[in-house]
Amino acid sequence: MKRIYLILFFTTLLIGSTYTAMAQSIYVSGQIKDSGLGEPLMGVNIVEVDANGRYLNGTITDINGNYIVKVSSGTGTIQVSMLGFEKQLVKINKRARIDITLEETSTQLGDITIVGEKMSNDGVTTIRDQAVAVGRIEMKEMKSSMTSSVEEMLQGRLGNVDITSMSGDPGAGLNIRIRGTATLNSKNSPLIVVNGIPYDTEVDESFNIASADVEKFGNLIDVAPEDIESIEVLKDAGATAIWGSKAANGVLMIKTKRGTRSKPVFEYTFKFTQAHEPNLLPMLDGSDYSMLIAEEKYNTLMRENFLVDKWPNKEISYNPDWLGNEYWNYAQNTNWIKEITDVANTQQHFFAVKGGGEKSAYKVSVGYLDEGGTTVGTGLKKINLSTAFDYNISTKLKFNTDIMYTRYDQDNNYDYEDNYYTNEKSLRTMAYRKSPNQSVYERDSNNVVYPNYFTPSTTLQGSAQEIPNPVAFANLAGAKRYKDNVRAGFTLNYVATDKIILNTILTLDVFDTKMEKFLPYKAIGANYYSESTNKAVNEFTNKTSLYSMTKIIYKPIQSALHDLVFLGQFDAEGTNTRFYKKTTSLGFSPYETSTVGDKVIVSQDSWATDFRSLGFFANATYKFNDKYIVTLGAKVEGNSKYSPESRWGVFPATSLAWRVSEESFLKNLEFINDFKIRGSWGISGNTPGDNYLYFNEYDASNSYNYMGIPGVRPTNMELTALQWENIEQLNIGFSFYGIKNRLNVEFDVYDKTTHDLYLVEWDNHIPSQTGFTNYATNEGTMSNRGIETSIDYKVIERKDFTFSFNFNISHNENMVIDLPSNFQSETGVMTENGEYKTKIVAGKPMGAFYGYNYLGGYSDLNDTYVKDANGDLVYEIGSTVPMRMIHTENDGGYYEFKAGDAKYEDRNHDGKIDELDIIYLGNTNPIVMGGFGPRASYKGFTVNVFLYYRVGNEIINQTRMDTEKMYNFDNQSTATNSRWRSEGDETDMPRALFGEGYNWLGSSRFVEDGSFIRFKSASITYDFPKSFAQKINLKELKMYITGYNMYTWSNYSGQDPEVGMPSRPDQLPKDYSRTPPSIRYTLGVSIVF
Amino acid sequence: MVVLKYSVVIKPVIGFILIVALFTNCEDFLNVEPENVLIQEEFWKTKSDVMSVVAATYDAAREYTEQSFLLGEVRGDYVSTNSGDYSAIGINNISTTNSKVKWGTYYKVINYANSVMYYAPLVQQDMDKTLTVPIVNQIKSEMLFLRSLSYFYLVRLWKDVPLVLRPTISDTVEFYIPTSTEDVVLKQLVADLELANTLASETTELGHANKYAIQALLADVYLWKEDYQSCIDYCDSIESANYSLEPDTTMFNLYFPGNSQKESLFEMQYSYVLKENDWGIYSIFNGITVNVTKMNFDNNDRRKFGTKTPKWKYTGADEIGQVARTTVGYPDPNYIYYRYADVIAMKAEAFVELSESNLPAANDLLEELAIRGGGTATFVRTYSREDFRLVLLEERGREFGAEGKRWFDLLRVAKRNSFENYQFLADILLAKAKNTQELNIMKSKVIDTMGYFLPIHEDELKYNKNLKQNTAYSR
Fold first, then answer.
1. CA-CA 20 to 30 A from A108: which of A8, A246, A367, B223?
2. Which of A15, A552, A706 minimises the CB distance to B55?
């Protein structure tokens, strides 16, 4: 690696050293005048240039338009230029004095002129000639979008790019899938390429085992949305081939705005946003809650025991004589979820300067975001700085630098993250569960409120560590995440001849994250000397990537008929991640929030991990008569994650395009401007997230000692056969431009098959006579097939009035084709409440889940009798009493259903509700998804509306399960008021039963259709007339108002149907009442001066 | 021209980069070793590396102590338990999904032992000169002992099992090995243990197998193979090495503190002081019930442990339960695989099976055990081979109560001469039936002598297509 960089460095030096060639001094002088008035011009650039346009010597004219310049030879050329005037090249011809008159240009200053055909973001092919499946968004179309991240902006805009947010908290991460889930355990997220430079977005590979919490890593692309010029999504194998295995799950290519030749142009945008949450679930108040709990207890204990057990308990008995004057603390009606939900304000500033001259162009921008979260204790502050500098050393040689820096301060709620932590313990879930009769603040015997949170160390619901005062917890405990990301890229482009172009990119990407968490004793009401309090966690992750890529483009034939281009590429990458974490507790003071000091160290951990890859890519593109385009290429890739035997992979790709519109039979049809049929086929490799998987590892541990001798065990075998996952993809589609280029239709069908699925160790077994029980290997096949189409139609295009419409729809079908019999992945114990079954098996799609079929409740005793398939009662042999329905339990016992209990379908009529009765309940994968919306503008007004939809996926409404199970001391929703109370009640809501029974088995009861159509955004923009803007010395003035997520059409009963997709295929799509996407209104002003 | 100079310079340089960098450096560049974990490439370099895997092999053998001892008891007639899967096996209701019919723990030890035997000579030859040939020989003898002990349990519990003699170092080894017959495995055991016997030292560190532990195991294997003369030869060899019974007065030192200087041959060690405890096994043995009535103890027999029953061997109590480990808080009883009393009993058995003329000597041997245990009242000298066999079984039962041997004793008797005595074991199993329905089901089961062995766990069959289920369970 080092050697390669060194050589690249010397290459650069060599190029640089040639400038120093100088001859003897000759002077040229003269005067420059304006052609119109004939007046002398001050500040005109006079430069001696060589044949390649490279600057040799230069000066500028004085106040009288006079200049004198030293030139290297009397036979050279001088270039005379000034902004606003036509550039002139003048041969010196051994003259000593040269006077020149400059013509004014007609071009307006500050205008961007697009020359030539629009290039795709790969910088090589034109959009017109692309033979592969690429989705593209021009940011001009989205000018008035206000989002804090790019991904959110993309949601629903591109076919089969499925983006779901983990939660609505500011800075929460997103799950992106391009054309479905293609792997069981490897990386599924796409590659992100900014200005030709790839970024590994996953902070660390080892995390997917440790915590699998994508949320921690926040936004993936640290680019201010205003900086972006266009985004392309590469989907098929033909398009992604050049990026190799990084791109196995697709590529998001982002191009940012750059400086252009102009005087400095300043741009400033300000946005203000107010956000609030969709309706919260209605919860029981204090008195309803107390009644429910008493009933739960009564139903379980029965009357005599109920009284013996001293129920009702004092905490919910509303007895004003309670000793210790706690009465008022337990006699409130607190809506806890409402207490921790707030209206959030966000402000956003963006400032940019850009401009440039003859030789160079620059763009500098600063973005600042201060976003509030709708859940108390969450928020995000972000600063983006970005610099883009382009310098043309000559017409042949130019370089660009891109430096981006992002600082990211995120406030989150504290999460336990240890064995106490589960999703059920997130702050919002706790707020739903917390008893509503408790007070937020302490009250005395006279109901006087004190400014302290009411945090009893234990309540009916258990210790405060289990379920604290949510308001205290949200305000006092917290987790801060700081992220620093610096990306510096250096690009050198050399046009050696008109046939050969060389391009080298060198990139350094440094990604630092730091997390500071603190749990003061006050937040959970424990004593300050309790082990679980004043707990501080400090965590550092440092990731450094070096990436280099060298490209050679050779164009031997460039004629009207034949066009042949060869591309060769070599790339190398090294990525190193270091991690350090320390947890302490028992800090002396709640203000000492760091892990320093002589505290009790709970745990310390650190590790480092490294991987490297090399790639060679070569391809050839041949275009004949502008009609037929063929591309053929292959990438050879090596990766340190595999053993020397298996580390090299060869990944071919080819694509074909036929421009039908150039054929004679279509050429005369006026309404067709361009019609192209494309096809591509290719294989890409995919790597597992973890490093060092193939090594034969040894584990030393105290627990392996024998008689005091330290023990070391071999923990696995060497996996020489561990290799690349091969994702084969066939894509067929067409691109259509018609009706004066106003209509664009893109259509694609694909068949993507993953071969040699990487099967992770814990699910894949081997015969235990090997001494091991599990090992990782590549075996199995999975398929994703789909179809996607997008339509973009500019219906009306007049000077003052335009109306356009866009629509996209896509469908993906996932299927596991083949898995070895040694592979077993199944979760869910169906004898226990609250569990659903998931399994990955051949012949079924991933993400399917199973459970019982819920039939309401048993209205009375007769209803609980077993009936056979004909509906007749079943008796035990020799008995006249009909058998009752039972549920078999884990330890071999059983529970007999009683009147008022939940009723599940006994599908095999054996009188037992057990695993044999479970049915398919649903699937995480949507059937179709996409977006659509019109856009209209009249004079200065623009109206932009966008709707986003996702149809056909099922969600397990965990929050509803938690708030309707009536099983413990948790608060429940008002829906439980319709519960079964006495014999004969006909209701869907079973009876309350404390710690007993099977009223909340994983069943169809909590599975809901997650389909929705959402008013993602609607905005009105007003562009003030130029004349008005100029009056206040501005070039442009724009104001807009946008509403987000204003309305959602859905049958989903939870707060919001956009529930974060599970990050692993064997996890369930559960709605854990995380912060939902908020309803937001934004007011923005944008000026250019 | 300068331009030409560029291309003249750059083209070769780029070419050079591509050629040199790509073809000489690739493999080096892609070899990245982990910083945080120990890998094979950095292991197996020194004597201490070898010794640490030896320790881990013994430690891994601890993991099957519970399975070995309970499966050696619960199918028999003296010990019962209500602990889930063991209790199902105890009442002969054995399903192929019973977690206790998994054999992975034995093969783990076998794999570690194979690894040590593979790498130790390499370290000795090329790496560490302090690892001398005699040390390697001793290590090899110990590893052969542990591997053979594991296989001996495997064949006694499952009969035909896969025979793996090479370490699983990489995925290039054959995973899907079919079973070998009991005869093949026993032949291997004899060969291995004979070799181990020649390599072994007479003295080793505490807890490690020495020459006589190996000979005791070998005698047991020969007894199982019905090669009685060889069994006697090795019993004599142990006797000549000054092993003897712990006197009656100090008999309880066998169990607490354990490691009797006189009698102990091989014990799986646990140590509270070294923090090598095992609460799990300790509590499981606490949960067993020993049927002392059936064992026909004389009230003076100290092996009855008063009212506490022989399971108190593991809590370390004397006959009136005075020194319980629980009161001291030591969850570290050793598990005795072989002690000299076993050698005496094996020799007595082999004597009689070899020739009826050895009956007097065999009676003497057995009486020695009865006298030491204080159970002379229940011991009777017998004068026919048939009678002696019954007395021997009973005396063994009292001597080794709850020491994980009963089931194997019964099975060994029943299987002798191609299951000549299967009815004897069948009766014991049938006696476990609680009602006529169960009895009828069991009757159909006990006819098949393959049913005296365990089924192969369902998972193993699923993961290895080359395995065939025990015929008694495949119907």
1. A367
2. A706
Distance CA A623, CA A784 (A): 31
Q: Which chain B residues touch A52 with a CB distance below 8 Å? A: 3
Supply the pLDDT for residue B475.
Answer: 61
pLDDT digits (tens, 9 = 90+) for A149-164: 555 566 666 666 766 6
Out of A496, A614, A713, closest to residue B7 by CB: A496
> Tokens representing B141?
């003898």
Residue A46, pLDDT score: 83
A345-372 per-position pLDDT tens digit? 999 898 999 888 878 899 999 989 898 8
Report ipTM (2 d.p.): 0.89
Tell me the chain A residues in contact with residue B465 when contact means C-beta distances shorter than 8 Å.
821
Indicate the range of A280-294, A609-623, A680-694, A887-901 predicted with least confidence: A887-901
Q: Give the rounded distance of the alpha carbon of A521 from its chain centre.
A: 35
Q: How would DSSP label each residue in A552-599?
A: EEEEEEE-SSEEEEEEEEEEEEEEEEEEEEEEEE--S-TT--SS-SSP
Size of interface A-B (CB pairs under 8 A): 246
Instruction: Tell me the HSE value of A81 on the side-chain side, using a 13 A CA sphere.
Output: 16
> What is the rounded CA–CA span in Å between residue A1004 and residue A921?
6
More confident residue, A624 or B475: A624
Distance CA A151, CA A168 (A): 13
Instruction: Find chain B residues with C-beta within 8 A of A497's C-beta.
Output: 7
Q: Could you give the CA distance from residue A673 to residue A892 in angstroms, rounded to a whole number?
A: 73
Interface test with A, best of B52, B82, B155 (most A CBs within 10 A): B52
What one-character DSSP code corresponds to residue A774? B
At residue B57, does pLDDT exceed 50? yes
* CA trace torsion A1070, A1071, A1075, A1076 (10° rounding): 110
pLDDT of residue B278: 78
Cβ contacts of A878 within 8 Å, gap of 6 or more: none
- Binning pLDDT at 50, 70 and 90, where does residue B110 land? very high
Give me the residue from B31, B115, B274 closest to A707, CB to CB. B274
Residues 6+ apart with CB under 8 A from A462: A969
Residue numbers in B near A640 (CB within 8 A): 30-32
Confidence of residue A1027 (pLDDT cuts 50, 70, 90): confident
Residues from chain A that touch B169, judged by Cβ atoms under 8 A, are: 696, 714, 717-718
Most confident of A485-489, A872-876, A939-943, B181-185: B181-185
Q: B70 CA to chain A: closest CA distance, Å?
A: 21
Q: How confident is the model at residue B4 (pLDDT cuts 50, 70, 90)?
A: very low
Write down the pTM of the prediction: 0.84
> Are the C-beta atoms of residues A494 and B8 closer than 8 Å to each other?
no
Query: How close B431 comes to chain A (CA, Å)?
Result: 25
- Residue B9: Cβ within 10 Å count: 15
Gap between the Cα atoms of A885 and A659, Å rounded: 68
Using pLDDT thresholds of 50, 70 and 90, give the confidence band for residue A123: low
CB atoms within 10 A of CB A723: 23
Closest chain B C-alpha to A558 CA, distance in angstroms: 21
Q: Report, as an integer, the average pLDDT of A575-581.
A: 89
Would you state the torsion angle of the CA atoms of residues B127, B130, B133, B139, taken in this order, to the nearest 10 degrees? -90
Give the C-alpha separation, A40 to A701, whole Å: 86
* CB contact (8 A) between residue A765 and residue B35: no
Pick the residue from chain B with its C-alpha nearest to A716. Answer: B169
Q: Give the ranges where A85-201 is alpha helix by DSSP (H).
A: 150-154
Asked if residue B193 lies in contact with residue B141, where contact means CB atoms within 8 angstroms, the answer is no
- Closest-CA distance, A209 to chain B, in angstroms, reads 16
Q: Which residues of A touch B464 (CB under 8 A)?
A: 767, 769
